[in-house]
Amino acid sequence: MSAKPLSILTGINRPSAPSSGGMILVGDLYRAMPRTRTTFLGRAPVDQAWTAAFGQLITLSTAKRPHGPDFAPYVQELTSEVGALIEKTQPDAIHAQYPGLALSLALTRTAGDIPIIAIAHGPDVMAAERSSEERESLNEVAAASAAIVVPTSTLADRIDHLTGRRFTDRLTVIPWGIPLSDTRVRDQPPTGTGPLSLVHAGRLDDNKSTITAIEALALTDQPHRLTVIGHGILREYLEHRATELGLRDRVQFDPFLPRADLWRRLPAFDGFVFTTKCLEAFGLILIEAQAHGLPVAYSDLPGVRETLGSAGVPYTPGDPSSLAAALDEMGRDHHRRTALTTAALNNARRYDITTTGRRLRELTLRVTSKPR
User: Fold this and answer.
1) Cα angle at 115 between 109 and 117, to 5 degrees?
2) How far apart are CA 180 and CA 42, in angstroms?
3) Which of 63, 144, 148, 282 has its CA 20 to 30 A from that of 339?
4) Percent of the chain with pLDDT over 70
5) Predicted local confidence at residue 315, as pLDDT
6) How many CA atoms lie within 13 A of 62 on its CB side?
7) C-alpha–C-alpha distance, residues 336 and 329, integer Å
């Protein structure tokens, strides 16, 4: 008789849909994890197609409240709800996504002797760096966890610092991945030199710094074109700035696209522009772009450098003139762009989601095999 599947309880305190990098990753990850039954805790509304990644999806009913005077009562109510769900599902292990945020706190406080693996994504670490309350929460979850999973050593160092280097031996680097078998490369790569058709995709906020790409276009020697795909609080400002710089005929704004639609479009572009200026936990969109054969111009951040290696053109984060020079280099040198395409495809092959799923399952088995 074969052993029963590994039972995992996890969740993200957001609507249950592939609406962000973290949500997309988690959907891929548990779908790719062999011999595992995962119960996912999320919020309504629920994307029914997305639920296929999980054995069960449960929507939380406790109303969300932000940090402030109502936060402690909110966490207490959420903890009560989560505790009842843990008692009902009796998982072998708990995966606390975004350690330090409210749902991970609730899971930690009601886990009992069920082992916890904290899984950090980046926004949770940024929150802990900004706020002492979030930092205390991160430390509480880290202290209760048997292991803390991060996608890069850069993020591990940030968490190690935030937790006073008390849990260094619990930090485990498992790089993220994507379903590589679903990616496609254009049949005929572009030839020759000249202006590039570029794409940028992601949240339109201050840290993602899309403004760097728009202002860079005003400084390039060649009239490159940029398509911006995504939504966020800075959309209106970015459109205004493009008009102000006389670039509206060279910058196109498209709404957020589900990943399948984005992936269908990626092979049509000549290159990808990555503009995050502060912390980036991993840069999953970079691997998506590379897996579709796109050379990448990227802000030279430690975590991104770790993800890409030498398979891209770096520039100084937040510096439009540095990015402009990188884009012109890609546009002028066809042989360099061809080499970057080859390097991009080779680099992307390191990040298959099946490897991520296998490694996380192996870690979970090691943790659950220890006496409680």
Assistant:
1) 90
2) 26
3) 282
4) 97
5) 96
6) 24
7) 8
Residue 340 has pLDDT above 90, yes or no: yes
CATH, domain 6-177+352-368, list 3.40.50.2000, 2.40.50.100, 3.90.850.10, 3.90.1150.10? 3.40.50.2000
Question: In angstroms, rounded to a whole number, what is the distance separating the alpha carbons of residues 128 and 281?
Answer: 14
Q: Which two tokens stand for residue 9?
A: 């309880």
Token duo for residue 284 = 């999953």
Whether the Cβ atoms of residue 154 and residue 306 lie closer than 8 Å to each other: yes
**60: Cα separation from own chain's centroid:** 23
Tokens encoding 289: 């772009």
Neighbours of 246 (CB within 10 A): 10
pLDDT, residue 247, reads 97
- Residue 279 backbone dihedrals phi, psi, to 5 degrees: -80, 135
In the chain, domain spans: 6-177+352-368, 180-348
- What pLDDT does residue 1 have? 39
Which tokens belong to 43?
């919020």
Tokens of 361: 């399952």
How confident is the prediction for the chain on average, in pLDDT? 93
3-state secondary structure at position 89: helix
- How buried is 44 (Cβ within 10 angstroms: 0-12 exposed, 13-18 middle, 19+ buried)? exposed
